[in-house]
Structures are given as structure tokens and as C-alpha cells.
């Protein structure tokens, strides 16, 4: 088997779709014809997680370069929020970002809790706000 030629042929024949779609048989599909109705493997789930974390890390470097000035526990909070919300929605936490710019972690944590996001994720928001405030992993 020639994996390079096989990959080239699949890319050509399947086409690339970055958003989920129903294929001709009605199966939920994405990418180069990957059938999502059959699920994914544990390895694929970990690979996707790693790839997305790297993507959000790069997006934060571009949009909020000062996020790296905080300690690891606080950086993890920011990345986890980006993962959960997406960068576009995370940008709307203007008062949290302002507090982070001045290293006011109490205020940043309060702004995290003073949001619709808190109602959506409940205990997760409280755990992450505690981590933001204390600077220690929860």
C-alpha cells in the first residue's frame, strides 16, 4: 500500500468539509468523509483534544498575548474557558480581561462568575473561578 497515494485519492474523491454534513446515505460526516455516526476511538478523542488545545493556545497568543504572563494554573483556566466557549465568546469577558491585565485575580474570578456562562456550566465555573483567584490547581 502507498499511503501517500491513498491519502491523495481519498482527499480528491471525498472532498473536504470542515463542518458536519449528512452524506448521500444520511450519515453525519465531517472532514474527508469521516462518518461521525459510528463514533470515534479513544485515540482520536485524545488527538482532537490535543490539537484543539494547541489551536486555542495559538489563538490566545494572537488575541491576548498577555495571557502567558499569568501562572500555569491561571493559564489553564483561560485555555479551558477558550475550549468551552470558543475565542469569540471568550473575548466578550471584557471586564475579566481588564482585571487580568492588572493582575486583579479576585475581580477576574468575580467576572467569571457574573456571567451567563456560569449558569450554563455551574460547578465548573466555580471551580475555575477558585483556581483563577488562588492561582493553584483545584
The CATH class of the largest domain, by name, is: Mainly Alpha
Proportion in β-strands: 5-15%
Distance between the termini: 48 Å
Fraction of residues in helices?
55-70%
CATH architecture of the largest domain: Orthogonal Bundle
As a whole number of angstroms, the C-alpha radius of gyration is 19 Å
Structural class: mainly alpha
Instruction: Indicate the low-confidence ranges by residue numbers.
Output: none
- CATH topology of the largest domain: the name is Lysozyme
Oligomer: single chain
Instruction: Indicate how many domains the architecture comprises.
Output: 2
Largest sheet: 3 strands, antiparallel
- Give the count of helical stretches: 8
Count every beta strand, where a strand is a DSSP E run of 2 or more residues. Answer: 3
Q: What's the gist of this structure?
A:
This protein is mainly alpha-helical and 138 residues long. The chain is 63% helix and 9% strand. It has helices at residues 3-14, 42-63, 72-85, 87-90, 94-101, 105-113, 116-121, 123-134; strands at residues 17-22, 28-31, 34-35.
Amino acid at each position: 500500500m502507498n499511503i501517500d497515494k491513498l491519502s491523495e485519492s481519498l482527499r480528491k474523491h471525498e472532498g473536504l468539509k470542515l463542518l458536519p454534513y449528512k452524506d448521500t446515505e444520511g450519515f453525519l460526516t465531517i472532514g474527508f468523509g469521516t462518518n461521525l455516526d459510528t463514533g470515534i476511538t479513544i485515540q482520536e478523542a485524545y488527538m482532537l483534544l490535543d490539537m484543539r488545545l494547541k489551536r486555542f493556545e495559538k489563538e490566545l497568543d494572537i488575541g491576548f498575548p498577555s495571557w502567558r504572563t499569568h501562572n500555569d494554573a491561571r493559564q489553564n483556566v483561560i485555555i479551558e474557558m477558550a475550549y468551552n466557549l470558543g475565542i469569540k465568546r471568550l473575548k466578550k469577558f471584557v471586564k475579566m480581561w481588564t482585571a487580568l491585565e492588572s493582575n486583579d485575580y479576585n475581580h477576574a474570578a468575580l467576572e467569571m462568575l457574573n456571567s451567563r456562562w456560569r449558569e450554563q456550566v455551574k460547578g465548573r465555573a466555580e471551580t475555575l473561578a477558585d483556581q483563577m483567584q488562588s492561582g493553584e490547581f483545584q
